[in-house]
């Protein structure tokens, strides 16, 4: 205990030493990875990644968020909300893809941010993506119970839940089937990644075929355009409702980033990762738009059920048997999405454990299965506990906020890494551009949210475009002077985002814009979460990483001095020479 209090007394010094400390991609790939003991097994190929990305997203979005958003936020124009969210997700996926090719480790956003902006920003992004995974998995598991009730013909979607008197509303319906499902998938993931991938591939193929049935049958037996324009037109909540809906359905695209966390288990990652990430986002975006459109074609938006929306919609048009099929197909899709998401969350926690920001036993990889066993079990139990109590509506917007925040940081990190760390721009120039880009994006977004005159929107959009164009011209000028074109990939043999910096800048803009459309309560809960994880970093994480990294280097230096009998006055030079 006295040792810990001594460490606390050194907190300011340790924060100064560690908050902005970065690792190189080579260190992440070759040194930090060794802390897991055993390597993960490289068995996945590009088609595994596409199926994992598709499977991870399909079960979440359509069957969980479409009904509530169409009914209360966007109206029949919910398919436009999916288009906006899909375009934003595609831009973010481009940023993830370039990072995953250049830093092929299991840490995803955590590793990308840590090698760019330092330890604390990486930690903040990592724990937020973990929050997103755990809460979304819990929410989706609870929706599995609703659709299983529908699949076997039970009319009440809450029939299998146990209502407890005395608990607060939203936490008083215990969902034991969701808990059982999560625990079974946890055991499956502990066994093998490749076998889990094959199981997902089979489920995803059946799920896509099922989607085709729902889309074709819905368009054939729906009311067509009439259902879209009645009773209050295509956009009953206005353009703002469409955009606000896009921020909520962004939850539906959680899953593609899981592919980037499998970088250590992929054969030929420089080819497979771009195909897996971009391919899965593109396929899912098209399916989402068609599925959301067909729901509003079958049922007027104000009559859509919030629970098991598609199954109830088929019953309304007289296809009771189809409602049961939809319930079964949705349940299968939800299982596939849970499998993929739980696969990704364990790898995030494993790499955060390698960095010593959480207890190091969470980083261990089992030598025989090649899976992060401890992280998988720990997060599986946490997800099951939350799924037992917590209603979907309580966590949906908090999930979207955390996701948008991380994707915003990754887009900024790509710009800084591409033009400063591996390019010729001075840090001040790139950071000034990022600050101005975020400021103009925020100004535009708040102007929109507060319903101000249109001239302000035009002004701030023009400023956003102008500052991006000026940055591109400035970068081109520097590259021309140094005979190095930074607008092309710095490493021609590796995949790079085309037309930079525009895709990453657009990703920053859209993530800021969608974030400001969320409700105030989401920001309040996010602020509480931010305070908690910051306290954990200050009280635990920074001390563990300081001891592991800084004190570890001193020990190595002392051993080196003893073995080579170097004079003490050369200590500084030795420290500089040791990675």
UniProtKB/TrEMBL annotation:
The chain crosses the membrane at residues 46-65, 77-99, 111-131, 174-191, 198-217, 277-301, 321-350, 371-389, 395-416, 428-448, 454-474, 495-514, 526-543. Pfam families: AA_permease_2 (PF13520), AA_permease_C (PF13906). One of its GO terms (molecular function) is amino acid transmembrane transporter activity. The keyword Transmembrane applies. It is a multi-pass membrane protein. InterPro entries: AA/rel_permease1, CAT_C. It is found in: Membrane. One of its GO terms (cellular component) is plasma membrane. Keywords: Membrane, Transmembrane, Transmembrane helix. Its main location: membrane. Residues 495-544 form the Cationic amino acid transporter C-terminal domain. Belongs to the amino acid-polyamine-organocation (APC) superfamily. Cationic amino acid transporter (CAT) (TC 2.A.3.3) family. This is Cationic amino acid transporter C-terminal domain-containing protein. It comes from Brassica carinata. The lineage of its organism: Eukaryota, Viridiplantae, Streptophyta, Embryophyta, Tracheophyta.
């Amino acid at each position: 205990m006295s040792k810990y209090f001594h460490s606390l007394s050194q907190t300011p010094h340790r924060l100064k030493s560690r908050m902005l400390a970065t690792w190189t991609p080579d260190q992440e790939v070759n040194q930090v990875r060794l802390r897991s003991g055993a390597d993960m097994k490289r068995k996945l190929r590009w088609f595994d990644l596409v199926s994992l990305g598709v499977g991870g997203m399909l079960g979440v979005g359509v069957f969980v968020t479409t009904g509530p958003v169409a009914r209360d936020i966007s109206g029949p124009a919910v398919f436009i909300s999916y288009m906006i969210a899909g375009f934003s997700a595609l831009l973010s996926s481009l940023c993830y893809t370039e990072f995953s090719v250049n830093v092929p480790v299991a840490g995803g956003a955590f590793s990308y941010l840590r090698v760019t902006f330092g330890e604390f920003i990486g930690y903040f992004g990592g724990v937020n993506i973990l929050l997103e995974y755990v809460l979304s998995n819990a929410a989706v598991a609870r929706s599995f119970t609703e659709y299983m009730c529908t699949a076997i013909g039970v009319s009440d979607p809450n029939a299998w839940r146990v209502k407890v008197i005395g608990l607060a509303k939203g936490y008083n319906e215990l969902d034991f089937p969701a808990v059982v499902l999560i625990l079974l998938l946890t055991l499956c993931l502990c066994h093998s990644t490749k076998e889990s991938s094959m199981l997902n591939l089979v489920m995803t193929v059946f799920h896509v075929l099922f989607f085709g049935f729902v889309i074709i049958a819905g368009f054939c037996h729906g009311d067509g355009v009439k259902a879209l324009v009645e009773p209050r037109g295509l956009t009953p909540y206005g353009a703002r409702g469409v955009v606000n809906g896009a921020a909520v359905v962004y939850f539906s695209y959680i899953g593609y980033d899981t592919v980037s966390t499998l970088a250590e288990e992929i054969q030929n990652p420089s080819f497979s990762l771009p195909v897996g990430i971009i391919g899965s986002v593109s396929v899912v975006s098209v399916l989402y738009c068609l599925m959301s459109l067909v729901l509003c074609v079958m049922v007027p938006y104000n009559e859509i059920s919030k629970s098991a929306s598609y199954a109830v919609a088929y019953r309304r048009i007289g296809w009771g048997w189809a409602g049961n099929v939809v319930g079964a197909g949705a349940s299968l899709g939800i299982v596939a999405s849970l499998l993929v998401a739980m696969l990704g969350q364990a790898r995030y926690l494993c790499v955060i454990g390698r960095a010593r920001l959480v207890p190091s036993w969470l980083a261990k990889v089992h030598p025989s299965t090649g899976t992060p066993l401890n992280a998988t079990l720990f997060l599986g139990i946490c997800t099951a506990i939350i799924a037992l109590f917590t209603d979907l509506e309580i966590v949906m917007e908090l999930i979207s906020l955390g996701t948008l925040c991380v994707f915003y940081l990754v887009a900024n990190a790509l710009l800084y890494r591409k033009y400063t760390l591996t390019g010729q721009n001075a840090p001040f120039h790139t950071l000034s551009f990022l600050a101005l880009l975020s400021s103009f994006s925020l100004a535009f977004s708040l102007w929109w949210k507060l319903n101000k005159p249109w001239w302000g929107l035009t002004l701030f959009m023009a400023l956003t475009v102008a500052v991006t164009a000026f940055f591109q011209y400035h970068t081109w000028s520097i590259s021309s002077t140094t005979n190095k074109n930074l607008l092309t990939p710095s490493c021609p043999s590796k995949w790079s985002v085309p037309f930079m910096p525009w895709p990453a800048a657009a990703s920053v803009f859209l993530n800021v814009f969608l974030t400001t459309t969320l409700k105030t309560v989401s920001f309040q809960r996010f602020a509480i979460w931010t305070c908690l994880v910051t306290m954990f970093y200050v009280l635990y994480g920074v001390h563990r990483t300081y001891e592991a990294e800084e004190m570890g280097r001193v020990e190595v230096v002392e051993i080196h001095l003893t073995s080579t009998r170097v004079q003490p006055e050369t200590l500084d030079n030795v420290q500089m020479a040791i990675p």
